[in-house]
Design brief:
The radius of gyration is 17 Å and the shape is globular. The longest helix is centred in the C-terminal third of the chain and has 40 residues, at 115-154. With 164 residues, the protein is mainly alpha-helical. Helix 2 (19-30) runs antiparallel to helix 5 and helix 3 (43-69) runs antiparallel to helix 4. It contains 5 helices and no strands. The two termini are 32 Å apart. The protein has one domain (2-154): Four Helix Bundle (Hemerythrin (Met), subunit A), CATH 1.20.120.
Length: 164
């Protein structure tokens, strides 16, 4: 139980430091803290942004909790999980946190009607892809071997597959 509490506290700290800054603070600063005023832009567009934000937030929170409770670690490279996390949203896509953070950023780009946030989202998605390919996947292959190879063979990297 102590390990879970420690992992939960570590995950919460990393949640604030990584996605909190990348998908929260930065888009707000780029958009100058101003969402579209009510009545500006189509209502469907505003709802699209809000849905992307809400869905991204649900996935990020669930994934962080899963790292602490299932993996007994954190998403932070300095305090990795003890076991490979493959439950929850990880059943459908190997990188649900990155997909969710990208959805949060693009949701805010829509909500703020901000091309700057949209460009930031594209740059962020490219950075996530490079990080996953160059660091994360090789590290997980070394740590989990055949278990990770089988997971990769069954689960797509970026586009969720909702059937087994």
């Amino acid at each position: 139980m102590a390990r879970r509490i420690e992992a939960t506290l570590g995950s919460l700290a990393f949640l604030v430091l990584a996605p909190g800054v990348v998908a929260g603070l930065m888009p707000w600063l780029i958009a100058d803290w101003r969402p579209l005023p009510p009545g500006d832009g189509p209502g469907a567009l505003r709802w699209t942004g809000l849905i992307l934000i809400a869905a991204g937030l649900v996935v990020v929170l669930e994934a962080f909790a899963r790292f602490a409770w299932e993996g007994l670690g954190t998403p932070a490279p300095v305090a990795p999980t003890r076991t490979l996390v493959v439950g929850g949203f990880y059943r459908f896509v190997r990188n649900p946190m990155y997909v969710a953070v990208t959805a949060l950023i693009f949701g805010q780009a829509v909500l703020f009607a901000s091309w700057g946030v949209a460009v930031y989202g594209v740059v962020g998605a490219a950075a996530f892809h490079a990080f996953v390919r160059l660091y994360e996947e090789p590290t997980l292959r070394r740590a989990y071997g055949d278990e990770y190879a089988a997971y990769c063979a069954a689960t797509p990297r970026w586009i969720p597959r909702f059937r087994r």
